[in-house]
Amino acid sequence: MRGAAHDGAGGRAAPRRFATLGRSVALFRAFLVEQSDPDRFYGLLADDSVRQVSGYAALAGRTVLDVGGGPGYFAAAFRAAGARYVGLDPDVGDFSAAGEQIAGMLRGSGTALPVRSGGVDVTFSSNVLEHVSEPTRMLDEMVRVTRPGGVLFVSFTPWLSPWGGHETGPWHYLGGDRARRRYQRRHGRPPKNRFGETLFATSIAQTLRWARDNDAVELLDYLPRYHPWWARWVIRLPGVREVVAWNFLLVLRRAGADAGGTVEKTELTGGRVAM
């Protein structure tokens, strides 16, 4: 790791100005209707995410790779900010979950990104890392495809947070397998997020250790993603943060000379992209 965490980067607007209590309340209320009103939740989350990323990196004219892009809400929000958006998801069915086919989507794995090294300006991933069996491998791949001087923006739900078990929570505190079996008994079907298959026990400590030991990145910031700015101190408390942070955000800069400008073409080593 090079550098240290701080508020903002490169003289851009400090992200904390957007992290108000009102924002936190609005996100929580939208989360409560995720299943019944996905347009409201994912639309708000996408707009909020773009606003956060903009606090660390310019987006206009830049290439953004969204690892785990899924529905098109993020595509619309990033493109509205002037970015050249490319989303990646292993499930092609998720590409049109926002109600329309989304151009500029790749089908592939986050642990083997079908993008050339240094091929994008910003790599972004929202709530995907906990669904990957080898999270540090996915992080390594995100570093590889980011140009020197580019920014990585990664968030995930820690296993020990109240939502760590996703729909099986809070019973995941008694063990992921037990929570999974309980859900199956109560609902007559397995959960979408199945512990050990599509959901894994990812921690803040593990992710921060990877970042601090990695000379290929500079740690710009790390914080509880949805908390107001004055509550970000909880991220400094080992152990406690795994429970109360709820969702962890890691912001990194790719080390090396800043190539500057925009990567004009995303070259593939596999998969399929529609531009």
Largest sheet: 7 strands, mixed
The string of secondary-structure elements, in order, is: HHEHEEEHEHHEHE
- The total of beta strands comes to 7
Number of helices: 7
Helix content: 25-40%
Overall body shape? globular
Radius of gyration computed on alpha carbons: 18 Å
Q: How big a fraction of the residues is strand?
A: 15-25%
- Sequence stretches where pLDDT stays below 50 over 5 or more residues: 2-13, 95-100, 261-275
Tell me the strand order in the biggest sheet. 3-2-1-4-5-7-6
Q: Structural class from helices and strands?
A: alpha/beta
Taking the alpha carbons of the first and last residues, their distance comes to 35 Å
Q: Provide mean pLDDT, rounded.
A: 86
Structure description:
The chain is an alpha/beta fold. Helices cover 27% and strands 17% of the residues. The chain has helices at 21-32, 38-54, 73-80, 135-145, 176-187, 204-212, 240-244; strands spanning 63-67, 84-89, 105-107, 120-126, 146-156, 217-224, 248-254. It has a seven-stranded mixed sheet with strand order 3-2-1-4-5-7-6, sandwiched between helices. α4 (135-145) links the parallel β4 and β5. α1 runs antiparallel to α2 and α2 (38-54) packs parallel to α3. The longest helix has 17 residues, at 38-54. The chain is globular. The relative contact order is 0.16.
